[in-house]
């Protein structure tokens, strides 16, 4: 028998308070990054890793997300009439990316709770979790590497990135041993948003996970932690501590990541991604040089 195909879960129930008032009526996941909403980059990343079944965990006022990935026949017909085949292709592509499902989180009880809500859809199979605040550049095959490591070892696999120790309090943080294979390490402990003095390393957990279905049983019994929420970090800590289990592995990511959950980093992401594009880069690079000279 062939192994079940891995599914992806994208938690998207947050309120986006750092971007108010822009997110008063618009989901933060729908904020545009150049000419696509942030969540489309995440879906495209999952698809590029071979995933075609995606569950989006939503909350109130998130209907724009499902609307975006739906077909819009009247818009498509209008573009056909105008002969605008370039925009038509981009509109159709966003509707045909994957088989996308939606589930309301209900109460905002934290990332661990959002992941637990996916249990019925995922079943007894392993799955990937992709956070919409973290965009990984399309040329960096992080998720593919994580899936391969999980399939090889059976371990939960998390993405880690070195950050300035002064910023470590903003992240879940890993204690590690290794490397066991290149940029792969064994995770021995996890702490959610520790003070700088208490952090076990400067390796921050970023928003990519490949998890075994066993994590659901752990989340069921995980009490609220930091911030009064059910933390996925706490459940992973338990998996890491199991003496007889496959444990937790970390991939130290050294590629390009854009944190669109921070306003300054969001602006940087737009500029960097636009500069890389053939249709926008040449004009934008020249303007940026002129603008920098005026500062």
From TrEMBL:
Which keywords are on file for this protein? Nucleotidyltransferase, Transferase
Q: Which reaction does it catalyse?
A: alpha-D-glucose 1-phosphate + UTP + H(+) = UDP-alpha-D-glucose + diphosphate
Q: What class of enzyme is it?
A: transferase
Cross-referenced Pfam families: NTP_transferase
Database matches in Gene3D superfamilies = Spore Coat Polysaccharide Biosynthesis Protein SpsA, Chain A
Entries under SUPFAM superfamilies matching the protein: Nucleotide-diphospho-sugar transferases
One GO term in the molecular function aspect is: nucleotidyltransferase activity
Domain Nucleotidyl transferase as annotated: residue spans = 7-272
Q: Domain of life, per the record?
A: Bacteria
Q: List its EC numbers.
A: 2.7.7.9
Q: Into which family does the record put it?
A: Belongs to the UDPGP type 2 family.
Recorded protein name is UTP--glucose-1-phosphate uridylyltransferase
User: To which species is this protein native?
Assistant: Microbacterium panaciterrae
């Amino acid at each position: 028998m062939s192994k079940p195909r891995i599914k992806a879960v994208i938690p998207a129930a947050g309120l986006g308070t750092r971007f108010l008032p822009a997110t008063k009526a618009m989901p933060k996941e729908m904020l545009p990054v150049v000419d696509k909403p942030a969540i489309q980059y995440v879906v495209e990343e999952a698809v590029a890793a071979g995933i075609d079944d995606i569950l989006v965990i939503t909350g109130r006022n998130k209907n724009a997300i499902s609307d975006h990935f739906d077909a819009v026949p009247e818009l498509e017909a209008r573009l056909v009439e105008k002969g605008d085949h370039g925009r038509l292709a981009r509109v159709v592509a966003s509707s045909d990316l994957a088989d996308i499902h939606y589930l309301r989180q209900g109460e905002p009880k934290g990332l661990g709770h959002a992941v637990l809500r996916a249990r019925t859809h995922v079943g007894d199979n392993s799955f990937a979790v992709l956070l919409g605040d973290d965009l990984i550049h399309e040329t960096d095959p992080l998720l593919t590497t994580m899936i391969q490591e999980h399939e090889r070892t059976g371990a939960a696999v998390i993405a880690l990135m070195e950050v300035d120790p002064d910023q470590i309090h903003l992240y879940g943080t890993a204690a590690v041993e290794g490397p066991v294979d290149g940029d792969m390490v064994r995770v021995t402990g996890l702490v959610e948003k520790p003070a700088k003095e208490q952090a076990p390393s400067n390796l921050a957990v970023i928003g990519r996970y490949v998890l075994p279905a066993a994590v659901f049983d752990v989340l069921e019994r995980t009490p609220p932690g930091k911030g009064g929420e059910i933390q996925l970090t706490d459940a992973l800590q338990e998996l890491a501590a199991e003496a007889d289990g496959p444990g937790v592995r970390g991939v130290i990511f050294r590629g390009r990541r854009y944190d669109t959950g921070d306003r300054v980093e969001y602006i940087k992401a737009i500029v960097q991604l636009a500069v890389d594009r053939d249709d926008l880069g040449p004009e934008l690079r020249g303007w940026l040089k002129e603008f920098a000279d005026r500062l």
